[in-house]
Amino acid sequence: MFGDLFEEDGDGFSSFTPGTGVKGRECEPPPPRGKIKLCGIKNQGGTCYLNSLIQTLLFTPEFREELFRLGPDELGCLADKDKPEAKARVIPLELQRLFSHLLLVDEQTASTTDLTDSFGWTNNEEMGQQDVQELNRILFSALESSLVGTSGSSLIHRLYHGTLVNQITCKECGNISERQEDFLDLTLSVRGVSGLEEALWNMFVEEEMFEGNNLYRCSRCYQLVRAAKSAKLRKLPPFLTISLLRFNFDFAKCERYKETGRYVFPLTFNLRPFCEQNNWPDSESSYELFSVIIHKGGCYGGHYHVYIKDIDQLGHWEAPVSLLFFIASENSVDTEDPLSVLTVILAQEESKCVLVDQLGQKLMNKTGTPWSKKYKKQYGTISKFLQNHPEVFMLVSNGTRVALKAAGPATTEPSPTEPVSSASANNSPDNTELETAGDTEGPDGCHWFNLNDSTVTAISETDIEKQFQGKESAYMLFYRKTTMKRPPEAIGNPAYEVPPHLVETVQEENARLQQRRAEFDASSNSVEVRLHLAPHYHWQNGALHPVSPDEDSIITVTFDRRKTVGDLRLMQDLWEGDMALTLAMNVPAGLHLYDTLTGKLELNSAGHRPSRTEFGQPCSKGLHAKLFLCVLVHEHLSVRDAGIRLMTSLYLCPGPVPTATQLFLYFSVGLAPSVGQELEIIVEESLTVKECLTEMLQMAKLDGESWHLRRVDWCEEIGEPLMDENASLKEAKVIHGDTLVLVEGRLPPKVRFQFWMISYVETFQTAFFHLISISGLPQTVCEDVHRRD
């Protein structure tokens, strides 16, 4: 009947798996636990139902501690499980190992592969043959069989088994015929009832009458008589499991369907009205809810996750904040926090889902700055950032779309001196309302969490009401007696009652993880820095070049990019004296220096990339990259106006000296200048572009008039042409030291055209025409025509 109920369907139910082509990902150690401090469980492909049940058992402290009390002398050892003569009880041993891992190993997720192997499940097809209700019975049956002959043989029976009695009362003689049966869970109907208490009332209070054509044969009267059939609870277990019949079969349509109607279940309730003994005290029949396994989807596919009450307060809980807080006011968005910005963008989308490729454009529209310039250095690519925040974002459609999870965490934390409250939010100018997702804690100080495979998020008690109805609704309910209190030493102590041999194993695993993370962290942050030492370079034709091609002028240093530039300077064994560092880039003209590094900057925040190099100048700290730009100095300028400072180096070069009205220019023919191919010219700044072009053509010994001038930018790429050939060099903003390129081809001719513009004057209610002549280029566009009043 259930078929592929446990197979994960597509949109919204599956987790995005990043590509395996990322370099070094296979060597990356698992991430540590997040701020919630609880561990999730990896989904093997269709085991979300198993993960939900395992987490429920883990957060049942009494079950967990009873299991931990069984030592190796009773259960054996996992290392001996393959030995024929050994008696290793694999299922409880694997549960112990998994529980200790989930409690103590500093890892974000754990695997259930070893546990499912102990069940004999080796493929997804076999794992897909039962749902979570069937698994609950199968797992407990397997545990009972494994624990036979040990002190824990009655573990399941003591904690989960209850007794109910079915009675038939003869209305003639009063004879009562009864049949007692044990139950592991109560299976209750969802169809036609409003909630849990009504279903219990129909099951244990309402009587079924045998009358009319449906009489009962009494064993005392020996005849068909009127009788009443009823059921009562005789023995209540410490933990009450309730399975809801959400899936039914429509015989008219011959198809399965899921009951999605409203079905209310309380956080606490009393079972005394449904018990055989009505004189029990309330404390013996009172229960509180501590786990809700939820099914999301339909009868042909879906996904399981679980809401769990953290009874031992092992997790770190933070109150969820409604997304309306972010939508209500633009002023609440911290543009320095990409999590806040992206949350607002997705929350304001009508579809609540955006293509990942379009998210960057939407962010730039909102902040005015692209992701690559504002956030990429610190947070990486936008796709990586989304993957690193699974508690907020959900990647769907094979990772091509992103949406917000139902209850995302707060993206901004209030300052300790400025606490955010509902009252202060309501009094804001924008009438922003901060809606918390419910009470911060229960009456006993415990909190609720949503454990969804590898993702763990904080929720509130009011979120449970959302699972009363709909395609995502409660499927199994777990209650515990209110009389079961936890010892003070168990509160906040995940190692409570964990056997010493398991604690030792966990400590060794944590040490290995810490070492792997340190090694991976060091290797992933190690970069090769290529240092070019200034004594091995000289200036030629406007750029730096090695003094000798055969001499090794580069020193390669492996360095941690998180360290500061000052730490790099302290490596005194590679050079003598102080060191001024400047970022350098190889351009066609040679080595170009463009940014001096300060000592407090980290290497990664200073803009360093593995493909870039550093240029080191052994000198006093006042010397930096500007002395290698080598711009000619006008002799009429004072030393101060010429930009000459203390410890500035000057180079003496042969050639005429430009006057105050002359410009020293470089130029080349045809293409961007390469090393040694530039020509130098000194011209008057009052010359027109056309006259300057003529002089350059003469110097280059070129004929013809089909030439024009173009600028060269700082990275030696040809830029825009100098369009106005009648303008002077000064008017064309050609400055001292610029590089121009002679490009073959005429400039586009100027054109002249006419159009009529009608101007309507409201005052005189008359119209007149203007004939306008415009001279310009073919690309000239009249952008704005202003209305004249």
Structure report:
- This protein has 789 residues and is an alpha+beta fold.
- Among the domains are: 74 residues, ubp-family deubiquitinating enzyme superfamily (ubp-family deubiquitinating enzyme fold, Single Sheet); 104 residues, Roll (Ubiquitin-like (UB roll)), CATH 3.10.20; 83 residues, Phosphatidylinositol 3-kinase Catalytic Subunit, Chain A, domain 1 (Ubiquitin-like (UB roll), Roll).
- Helices cover 22% and strands 27% of the residues.
- It is built from 20 helices and 35 strands.
- The strands form ten sheets. Strands 5, 10, 13, 14, 15, 19, 20 and 21 form an eight-stranded mixed beta sheet that branches. A five-stranded mixed beta sheet has the order 25-22-28-26-27. A five-stranded mixed beta sheet has the order 30-29-33-31-32.
- A hairpin with a 4-residue loop joins β17 and β18.
- α4 packs antiparallel against α5 and α4 packs across α18.
- The longest helix has 25 residues.
- 26% of the residues are buried.
- The N terminus and C terminus are likely disordered.
- This is Ubiquitin carboxyl-terminal hydrolase.
- Keywords: Hydrolase, Protease, Thiol protease, Ubl conjugation pathway.
- GO terms for molecular function: cysteine-type deubiquitinase activity.
Percent helix: 10-25%
Average pLDDT confidence is: 76
Hey, roughly how much beta strand do the residues contain? 25-35%
Q: Count the strands?
A: 35
**How can the largest sheet be summarized?**
8 strands, mixed
Keywords: Hydrolase, Protease, Thiol protease, Ubl conjugation pathway
Biased composition (Acidic residues): 1-11
Protein name: Ubiquitin carboxyl-terminal hydrolase
Enzyme class: hydrolase
